[in-house]
Amino acid sequence: MAFVSDIQHRVRVAAGRVRSSGNLGWSVAALVTAAVVGAPIVAVGVLATGSSGDTWPHLLSTVLPSATVRTIWLMLGVGTVTLVVGTGTAWLVTMYRFPGRGIFEWLLLVPLAMPTYIIAFCYLELLDYSGTVQTALRAAFGWRNAADYWFPDIRSLGGAIFVMSFVLYPYVYLAARASFVQQSVCVLEVSRTLGRTAWGAFREVAIPLARPALAAGVSLALMECLNDIGAVEFLGVHTLTVAVYTTWLERSSLPGAAQISCVMLVFVFALLWAERAARRQQQYHHTTNKYQHLPEQELSRGGKLLAALACALPVVVGFLLPVSVLVSSVWIDLADGLDAGFWRNAMHSFSLSVTAALTAVVLGVVLTYACRATRSKLVHGATRLVSIGYAVPGTVLAIGILVPLAGLDNSIDAMARALFGVSTGLIVSGTAFAIVLAYTVRYLAISVGSIDAGFKKTSRNLDDASRTLGAGLTQTLWRVHLPMLTPVLGAALLLVFVDSMKELPATLLLRPFNFDTLATSVYTLASLDLFEDAALPALAIVVIGLAPVILIHRAIAKGRPGID
Q: Global pTM?
């Protein structure tokens, strides 16, 4: 036995030495990747310290206060509605039995496929003064103009909260549903035996257990709210994002736009801090690993009807009504809509999104595998840094990317002039490369999160066995891990691809001249009130966005830990 123990000890020591050797290249690659992700934020800070002339005093006295107040109210409204709708519907489909419950489990996810700027101009077409509803009301009751009747104004802060909340609530629904499904039935049963009603168990047990997940879901919804530019501009709500856009393009003040971007970053870091604080201060643990199927409780006939209506309302408002508006418009002019411009824009979107998705997955593998191969706190910290990219709004990211790329272009141009007497012009900052870089930086966190979850399910004994047999780090990754991670890599590729297809703010600011994607064409046509022309590219984006919704639903459906 002593001999066997000695052999095992020697093997572990040898494996440790092998694991610690040869990882310098992976560590350097991870640090460089993290530096690229962090560079735009640093660039925004550097640019903000520059002089903007008299633009900043003007912005500080007129634009910034009102834009900040509107942004705060918008985020408070969206946060409240998404929390109530997402948590309530998740609890209903998890704990109660009513008609259509199985269908609503995944239907409540489908608004994720609807970008905020698309649902905004759908509701403008539906509820605006010249829209379908008000036109029908005037025809039915003989009203001549808006002075003859009252109708809620969709072009308002309340309209923006309404529209955006019913697109973004699935972020909270996903987090709440996953948390409720993973809670042990024992905890809930004990609360009921101690005299708690169903409402009491929900309020005093289920919600505290799910609080970290709810904080994460609301934070994601608010980050998307802060990032939005299309919906708020269509609805006439001038937030900080719109202020950045107009300051850059209309006032031609990049330093002024960077200074407003720094204010937006304060909101971003406040959200990240709040989310991490919620997870750090509210930690709950089950004392058993025995999980049972959560028994759905029966409701009265009226209760079943109310539960079904409560789950149907967000789906109808957030998906079915907007899609019906798009389909009716596309059906009228389908042949003319499928013109060369549509296919050109679709190809632009597809090529940019595929390139960004492949790049994000490759870099995600580099970062996660470097963390696995080394115990360096610097590498692990650098990998966590990439999560900031997803939180940074697209307008801020565009400014941060443009500055270093413009500096690179100027350096190349100066060198070419000195050596060859010719000007190279814009090589990187005025091309599609800048858009791909923006997509990669913003959505790299999605790739890293998915791939890291896959690596954590793989035993480190496989690494040790491969290395002791003479395989290097790269060979181990190529021959052992990548074949096992194929489904995870495919899922990460799909998620980044679809998010890139829908991305608007960074694309709008970084696109080359006379270059459109499906997202920017929707924005441009909707801004010109050409709703029928914008319907087809908008519907294409929505249909493509349904793919990850199905993937996410399948992951949650089989995500129950423990045993029955």
A: 0.81
